Amino acid sequence: MEVDTEDDLKQAFKEQAREALRDYKIAVVNIVATFDLTTKIDLKDLVLKARNVEYNPRRFHGAVMRHREPKATTIIFASGKVVAVGLKEEAELERVAQKVESIVRKIGFEEAAARWITIQNITATGSAPHKVRLEGLLQGHARFCSFEPELFPALYYRMLEPKMCFMVFVSGKVVVCGAKTIEDIWEGFEKLQPVLLQFKLRDRRIDI
Length: 208
Prior knowledge:
This protein is of the alpha+beta class. The protein folds into two domains: about 90 residues, TATA-Binding Protein (2-Layer Sandwich); about 70 residues, TATA-Binding Protein. The protein is built from five helices and ten strands. Strands 2-3-4-5-1-6-10-9-8-7 form a ten-stranded antiparallel sheet, with helices on one face. It is elongated.
């Protein structure tokens, strides 16, 4: 029972933290993943026999396959390696990999089997419900930050655990990349929230 109680407390704290992030409107915008079909693919044959496939070896050495459901794009290489982009949910990745496997098997590559599915990067966005003093954040967390406003308006905040990078704008908008799981995205925002709140940009105007 003690374990159950401890787990219940952890879950309650997690839900409380997620509720506090509701105003951030966190959304996953892109998942990049890789997998391997474990056999070589004749891309010229692929583009002739499969639908929604583009292949121009003079421009790029991979064949581009577009999927409607779930909406995604896969880039297939002759080695059998595949890169998937444009996904919004982790669960969609398995479906896309199975679709690609099914298509290439049907057109003659019967040994194809989607293996070693790995998420390489997740990009997400969010927005703090307040503006942020980027100069103050840079001074207070110099070890983790870099900021060159003359080159780019966002401050880069590099989180070590979970490992990812946040781009923080003075407006409060946040873009995160480098995460490996959606759970990491939430954990990263949970850790970033009190930091941004500490450097909240307050309106100094006086009402007359």
